[in-house]
Specification:
The complex is a heterodimer of chains A (255) and B (260).
Chain A: E1 6-17, E2 26-37, E3 41-45, H1 52-60, E4 67-72, E5 75-76, E6 84-87, H2 99-103, H3 105-109, H4 114-127, H5 143-156, E7 161-165, H6 173-189, E8 193-198, H7 201-207, E9 210-214, E10 221-226, H8 238-250
Parallel strand pairs in A: 3-8, 3-9, 6-7, 7-8
Antiparallel strand pairs in A: 1-2, 1-4, 4-5, 9-10
Helix pairs in contact in A: 4-5, 7-8
Chain B: H1 2-31, H2 41-53, H3 61-92, H4 94-107, H5 116-123, H6 127-151, H7 155-163, H8 168-179, H9 181-204, H10 211-220, H11 224-252
Helix pairs in contact in B: 2-11, 3-4, 3-6, 3-9, 3-10, 5-6, 6-9, 7-8, 9-10, 9-11, 10-11
The chains are: A alpha/beta (255), B mainly alpha (260).
């Protein structure tokens, strides 16, 4: 085990929710354990409603697990912190802020002076390929561009860990391929520890160093695959297709 | 070139046209009715000119408009200062909501006009009671709009702010309040027209000045054109107030896309 170098570790993480009108609490996560190495790209693959968002929210410190704990570099997580940044499926951009101020949001929260935070924002706007859109409002951007803003916003806060909650789930197939390629290349230029949640096998194999497959409710880790394909990866590569077949056979992803 | 100019002038032409058509329609109808019921636009115009030169109740017509405006704006200012924060707090804080909203739900259905007798009893027929009526009308609307606006803030935005480590205070001032600015503006808009309507109602009951007083004078003197001048003044001032707020909203919420 590489326990000493684990960046993120979840130990027997469980989460149950009270559902109105039901006596029994709904078990969403069932003793999930995982560990992520520094600068590793981990993909959590699972069908809709397998608790993967809940898992991510626990690691982000947005919700408290019912049992078990999340350790970051050995310290338990109790609340959100600037060491982690989230990218949301529904973008979660502030409609009243321009692109540059959205990207600078995390820095603004921490009280970084305006000039400095805009300089950082511009660097990451550039990195995600949105140069020229600094003064645009989210409303004026396409879905893919909005998520680029979301990714830049997460990066700009200089977190060690990026938590991505089906970030491309709302995009059309074409845009999705482009975003996957760009994310992979951004990450290779500027590595962080990533946990990326998705329900798409291809996306998982294209992006991940390692894939954890989760079961339907209650969410458990069912299988684990190390993806050993060098970059740049290709969706039609024989090795890629072998992984694809292997993972599809082992999962109940009917999507 | 002409096409582009035409595009710019088009809305103005439509507005002028529709106003002219309205006056023309009024003129035609007035030809076939008893002038004591509906004076023609010309007679109303003459009356307006006369009122500009001859004082009513010791004051000229602009002074009367000024009196009404001052009442409205005083009440509106107080309603904003007290109502906005209250509504926002009700939407943000559960405890605050549970404490305030039962009282509020009870007071809400009472129309501002129903407060006139008690206001006069408490504050006399002078300025106090009139300002109070306007205050009640606009206060209720402001509280309701900011409250519902706050309740409809997308929790995802708050989650995003939390995930970046925003404090509760930052979540409120940097995310929740700007997120409900559009409904706050809708509230400011409605509250101002409500205050303007209430001042008329208040002035109809015993006032020595104000636009409402002009209307009552017109009735007492049996001068229909004077009543209509008063009514038209209400319309003009009211729409100018609304227009200035719309302008402020456009300046302050530039991210909003508008349908028209």
């Amino acid at each position: 085990m590489t326990k000493q170098t684990a960046k993120i570790e979840c130990r027997d993480l469980s989460k149950a929710f009270h559902v109105p009108g039901q006596d029994q609490r709904l078990l969403v996560l069932d003793r999930v354990s995982l560990s992520v190495r520094e600068n590793e790209f981990l993909v959590v693959l699972g069908p809709g409603q397998c608790g993967k968002t809940v898992l991510l929210n626990c690691i982000a410190g947005l919700i408290e697990p019912s049992a078990g704990q999340v350790l970051l570099g050995g310290t338990p997580v109790t609340r959100p912190g600037p060491d982690r940044a989230m990218v949301f499926q529904r973008y979660a951009l502030m409609p009243w802020k321009t692109v540059e101020h959205n990207v600078a949001f995390g820095l603004a929260v921490r009280g970084v002076p305006v000039k400095e935070r805009l300089a950082t924002a511009h660097h990451y706007i550039d990195l995600v390929g949105l140069k020229g859109f600094e003064k645009a409002y989210p409303e004026q951007l396409s879905g893919g561009m909005k998520q680029r803003v979301g990714i830049a916003r997460a990066y700009a806060n200089a977190p060690d860990i990026l938590l991505m909650d089906e970030p491309f789930g709302a995009l059309d197939a074409q845009t999705r391929y482009a975003m996957e390629q760009d994310l992979r290349s951004i990450w290779e230029k500027d590595k962080r520890t990533v946990i990326f949640v998705t329900n798409n096998i291809e996306e998982a194999i294209y992006l991940g160093d390692r894939i954890l497959v989760m079961s339907v409710l209650p969410g458990r880790v069912k299988a684990e695959y190390a993806i050993d394909i060098p970059s740049p990866r290709n969706y039609t590569d024989p090795a890629f297709l072998t992984y694809r077949k292997q993972i599809s056979n082992a999962t109940d992803l009917s999507l | 070139m002409i096409g582009r100019l035409g595009k710019r002038l088009m809305p103005a032409a439509l507005t002028t046209g529709s106003l002219l058509a309205f006056v023309a329609f009024w003129q035609v109808v007035s030809l076939y009715t008893n002038p004591d019921f509906l004076p023609s636009p010309g007679r109303v115009w003459d009356e307006a000119v006369r009122l500009f030169h001859t004082p009513v109740g010791g004051k000229d017509i602009l002074a009367h408009v000024g009196f009404s405006l001052r009442r409205v704006l005083t009440a509106y200012l107080w309603a904003t200062v007290l109502g906005l924060p209250l509504g926002l707090c009700m939407g943000w804080n559960r405890t605050c909501e549970k404490i305030v909203s039962p009282i509020f739900e009870l007071l809400r259905p009472i129309p501002p006009i129903a407060w006139i007798p008690i206001a006069i009893l408490w504050l006399g027929v002078a300025e106090g009671s009139k300002v109070f009526i306007c205050f009640v009308g606009s206060f209720v609307i402001l509280v309701l709009n900011s409250y519902t606006g706050m309740r409809y803030v997308d929790p995802l935005l708050i989650d995003a702010a939390r995930s970046f480590g925003a404090s509760r205070r930052q979540q409120f001032f940097n995310v929740a309040v700007p997120a409900c600015l559009p409904s706050i503006f809708a509230g400011l808009q409605n509250a101002l027209s409500m205050a303007w309507m209430c001042v008329l109602a208040a002035e109809l009951v015993g006032a020595r000045e104000g636009v409402g007083f002009i209307i009552i004078q017109g009735m007492d003197l049996n001068r229909p054109p004077m009543i209509l001048v008063g009514m038209i003044l209400i319309g003009i001032v009211g729409s100018l107030l609304a227009a200035s707020l719309r302008w402020a909203e456009r300046a302050l919420c530039p991210w909003r896309r508008e349908l028209v």
